[in-house]
Structure formats: structure tokens, C-alpha cells
Amino acid sequence: MASSLRAARRMKTCQQCRTRKVRCDGRRGTCGNCDRLQFTCSFQGVNTSLGRPGRLRARRACTRCHSLKVRCSGHAPACVRCQKRGRECIYSSPAAGNVAPKNDLVQNAVVQEPSCPDGVVDEQGSEPIGELGPFKFPDRQRLELALNVFFTHIHPLPGYAFLHRASLHDRLDREDVDMCLLLSITAISILLTDTDPLNRRYAIQCITKAEEDVTTNLGQPSIMRTQALLLVIRCKMCIGDYTLAFAQVAMLSRMAFSLRLNYQSSGASFLAIETRRRLMWAIYMLDTHWAAGLLEFTTCPADAIHVPLPCREENFELDIRPSREVQLHSISEIPGLLAGDICVAYLRDQILRSTKKYAADANTPSGIMHGIHEIENQLQALYRRLPLSDLYSRRNLRLRAHSPWLCRYAFLHLLWHQCHCDLYRCLTPALVESIPDTTLEQLSPTFLLQCQDRCAFHAEKVADIITSLLQLGAKLPVLPMEIAVWAYQSIRLLIHTARELTRERLVAYANSCSEMIRIISDTSPAVQQIGADLNSLIKESGEQKAAPKDYESGGVMKSMATPRHILSIHNLISRSVVVDDTEELPLPDGHSAAGLEHHNESSGLDGQLPTLSRFDVSPFEGVWLLDGNVVDGWEGQAGFDLIRQMQWDGMGY
Questions:
Q1: Residues 247, 250, 255, 258: what is their CA dihedral angle, to the nearest 10 degrees?
Q2: Left (φ > 0), alpha (ψ -120 to 50) or beta: where does 502 sit?
Q3: For residue 77, is the peptide bond before it cis, meaning its omega torsion is within 30 degrees of 0?
Q4: Same structural domain for residues 353 and 488?
Q5: Does residue 96 sit within a domain?
Q6: CA dist list (Å): 484 to 48, 119, 459, 525, 527
Q7: What whole-number distance in Å separates Cα of residue 143 and Cα of residue 183?
């Protein structure tokens, strides 16, 4: 009896499962285990002897990696680790080192050709995605290359300085990095430095996979997923995919606040604290870039951030805690270019908020003059807080020609001058963002002329710095996309305000700005439209002696222009295609307003709906939580005001 049971059990177990001593489901054709592991199942009726199954993790390590008990890439003729260290790589068997691991990706991903030609972008400036082949995750060699490119060329950009190189490499060696972060780093490293169409399409695949991973785990936010989402949004901005990125910025801010990045972390190491701090400020700079001074589009307000400014780069790189920390509103010397970029970005956000109030005719003439003088003082105070070595001069610019921090230096001073342009251009009558004519007439003519002359002065400074950058004689580093917008705005303002600028000088500045836009658009196709707009603007100004028509007021901008929604032609909000389906909300024609009036008459009503009776409610009876401790782990922490954070409703200015 026992022997018959053993025979029956043996008939229901394939040879592979019996050899591996695992339970077999007995499914004919191919059992579940063999199907999952892609083994040749004995139930297929194959007569060849299978023998023992192949090892799931066959030894392909070289002798050096095997002796050190570290992971070996298995590449031939030498593994990645031996290549990096310049050592001889020896494999113990001929088969080892000839085949890459199953999940590894070859250096050049194979994808199908897209439906549109290479290098062609659509009308919105976004890259064609086309039909993509099956995605394969990057192998270790490609990841190492992406990390090297990122920290060499992209980390110096102000909005990307939130990753620590040594820590990330250490976690990568321990396989302790979320794949979504590695994919987003790979994608942004390709998009900002590589113009090869094949690699750029692979980068778009990486964006999609990283985005899927972050979206799937929205209920479990983490630092790495937040970093990955920030890079995904930056990637979408490069390729011109603004609509989804617009909504993801709000998601990014929510993730940051849920992780309490806006508060100092107690008990953590300096590297952890500084990484959180830099990530929070990077999110803030991204959010202010999208919001453009509109409070209803602001998802990461500066008032909600209670952490100091980032420290100097050498302190962060070498894990050296600085002797003092500087706050955003401090009067102390600004600790480095990154902190300076954040401070000037904050001031520009305040300037845009103020000028939009002026354009909405929400201030008296005296209030406008007082507000402009106050912001002027803040800009001058910020400049005085900079170290002497960070002040602008052509000599300081040339000294940084081969420095990795050239982009931060140029960004700081270009944005400082752009802040003045944004402040004064609201007093230029020919511009759409100008304050109403009735208010302009009440201002002092001397004050208006002074502001317009200052606007022309700072616009020329922007064009002059861009020209100096092109004349350095060195290959320019990766530059922020915002510089292309400032280049366009500087020429636009010079056309409308620079009365003493010669035509030859204006054309020279325009050529420099056009060349800068072209350089940035090589890796950021979304910028190409800005170059076309600049050429049209120059052509328009040359064809007529009067001030050319203002391109800022046309197209999409005109439909969105309300007293509080005066946006730049290249503003990211205006380039996010959002369909207004308000007309689809009412009921069909059978339930029109006329039918409602007829219903009221038949019901004996005089056309007005009855109002609800009022109830006497104690002021505290409607409060659902009196003690404020709504989230476990947050009670008792100093500085946290839950009610204030919940009431950031964007109501007015």
C-alpha cells in the first residue's frame, strides 16, 4: 500500500522538482515551478535526460571578486571592478565572464524606430516617444556611467544638488538603492548631456518605469522616491511634457511635507540632515519656478520651510558639520553659491507676487512706490551678504571658466538682474504685465523714467553676462533651462525700454542670446520654441520704428490673462495643456434654465430658492480635533502647527 502511494506521488512530480526537492503542482505539459523558472519540465514528454537542474546563480565571478566575496559583473575580458582598479581579471573557467547576467542590459539598448524622424519635435516642443521595445534595466556599468555624468555635470545645477556622491555609491555597492532613483538618475544624465536619439529614447523608457514605481508606492513615501520624483519632473520639463509634470509638482510637495523634510531632523547624522535640507530647498525652487508668483499654484510656500540654508559644497562632500547655520531671512553672510541661488529665487517669487498685485490694480500709487523701494532694498541687502569671491566681475567669471560651479555662479547673478527686470517691467506701458494706465498716470513721471531706465540697465546686464559666458573660450557646462527664458526677456525689455541702445548693439545682444538658447535647446528641446519667438521678436522690431507688438499677450496667454493670471509667454503653467470642461457640467437642454423657471412657477415659488434655517453652534462644536495631535509621532514636536498647514488654502494675496 505504501509503495503504491509513493509511486503515485512520484508520477505527479516532475524530475526537476524531485531533484530540487520542492513541491510540484503536477500540472501536465509544464508544471508551475518549471514554467516560472523557465526549466525544461519532464512532463513535456522530452526523452532526453535532464540530469540535475542548472544553478540559478551560476558562478561567474572572477578569482579576485570571489576571494573578496563581493559581487562581480561577470563581463569579459575584465569585470567592472577590476577595470576600475586597473587590476588583472582572471576567471577560473572558460565559461565564466563570457555571458552577462540574465537581468543585465547591454551597453546600447535595442529599441524600435519611432514613428517620427530623428530629431523632430512636435509643436509643443516635446520629444517623440514612438514605439519602444521591451525595457531592460541598466546594468552596473551603465549605472556607474550615469552616476559619474550626474555628479560631474548635473549635480552643480542649483536644482539638482541633493544627492551625496560617496553615500550613493556605497549604497549601490550594497544594493540598497531604490530602482526608481537609479532609473531617474540614468534618464536625467542622458537627457541633459546626450543628443543620441537612441539613448534619449531609452531615457524616456527609464522615466516611464521610474514614474510607475513612484506612483505604485504613493502610500509609502520615502526619501529616495521623493528624490526620484523630483528628477522625473525635471526630465519631463526637458522633453516638454508639462501637463502631467504640473500635477506631479503638487504630489512632490505633499511627499516632502509628509516626510517632514521642512523640519530639522533631530538625532540624525549631519549627512542625513543636509541631504533632507537640500532636497527640501530643491523642491522649493522647482515649485516657485512653476508657480510664477501665483499663490493658488504654490504648493511649497517658503513660510512652511523651517530648515536652514544648505551648507558649502565642501562641507557636504566631506561630511564636515559647519560651525554655524544660516537661515533664509538671516543677515549673516550667505554660505556658498547654492544658498545664494535659493535666496535670490525666494526674492524673485516675492517680486512676482507683488507685481501681479500691482497689475491687478490692487494697490494705491503710493503703495506701489513704497513696495518697489522696499524690494530694491532687499535685493541690495542680499547682494551685500555675498562673499567677496562670489560677487560678479568678468575676472571672477573667467576664473570659474573651468570650474564645476560656473553654472551656479552665472545662475545667481543672472537671476539677481532678472529680479530687477521683473520688478521694473510692470511700470513699462507697452508691456502686457504693466499696471493699468489709470494708475500709471498717478505716478510721478520722474519715478517712471527712473524705473524704466533701471529695467533697461539690468536687462542689458543679463545680455552682457550671457555674452561673456559665450566668450569664455571653454566648453560651457550644462545650464539651467531658465536661462533661455531670461535671455528672451532681456531682449524683449531692451526693445521696449532701452532708448539709448544702438541697433547694432541690440542685434549683437540678440545674437548672443539666440546662441545661448540654441545651446540649451540641444539637450532640452522644449526650449526650441523660445528661440523661434526671439527671432520673431527681433524681426518684428526691425520692420517698424514703433515699439513692436508684445508677444506676451497673444495666444494661450490671452485666454488665461485675468487680473491675477498675467503670465509670461514661456511660463510653465501656460504650457501645461489643461482642458476646461466647464460647459459639460450643466444638465442637457431638457433641463435648461427655462425649465427650472417653469418648475418654480408651478411650485408656487417666486423664482428664489428657500434658504436653509440657521443653527446656533458653539464656536468649538465644529472643531473635530481639539488637541491638534492628529498624526502619530508628531505630537510634542516643537515648531509644528498642524492647523496652519491645513489652512494653506491660497486665498488671495
A1: -140
A2: beta
A3: yes
A4: yes
A5: no
A6: 67, 20, 14, 12, 7
A7: 9
282 shares its domain with 360:
no
Boundaries of domain holding 494: 349-560
**Percent helix, strand and coil across the chain, each rounded to 5?**
55, 0, 45
CA-based radius of gyration for the chain: 31
Q: Residue range 193-201: average pLDDT?
A: 92
How many Å apart are CA 641 and CA 346, to the nearest integer?
22
Query: Hey, is 169 helix, strand or coil?
Result: helix
The whole-number pLDDT of residue 10 equals 57
Sign of CA dihedral 120, 124, 126, 132: negative
Cβ atoms within 10 A of the Cβ of 501, count?
Answer: 16
- Give 93's contacts (C-beta < 8 A, 6+ positions apart): 59
Domain total for the chain? 3
Nearest Cα to Cα of residue 306 among 323, 284, 321: 284
Strand partners, 306: 263
**Predicted local confidence at residue 458, as pLDDT:** 97
Instruction: Specify the DSSP element, H or E, that contains 210.
Output: helix 197-216
What's the average model confidence in pLDDT over 253-275? 93
N-term to C-term CA, the chain = 88
> CA 142 from chain center: how many Å?
23
Judge contact between 188 and 154, C-beta under 8 A: yes
In angstroms, the Cα distances linking 589 to 357, 585, 597 are 40, 12, 14
279 within domain boundaries: yes
Q: Which residue has the cell 561673456?
A: 468
Query: Residue 393 above 70 pLDDT?
Result: yes
> CB–CB of 261/279 below 8 Å?
yes
Asked if 475 and 360 sit in the same domain, the reply is yes
Write the pLDDT tens digit of every residue in 566-589: 455 555 545 554 445 555 555 555
Q: What is the pLDDT of residue 581?
A: 53
Distance (Å, whole) CA 335 – CA 481: 25
For residue 263, the SS3 value is: strand
DSSP one-letter string for 496-553 = HH-SS--HHHHHHHHHHHHHHHHHHHTT-GGGHHHHHHHHHHHHHHHH-SSPPP-GGG
- For the chain, give the mean pLDDT: 78
The stretches of 25-164 forming alpha helices (DSSP H) are 32-37, 63-68, 80-85, 140-149
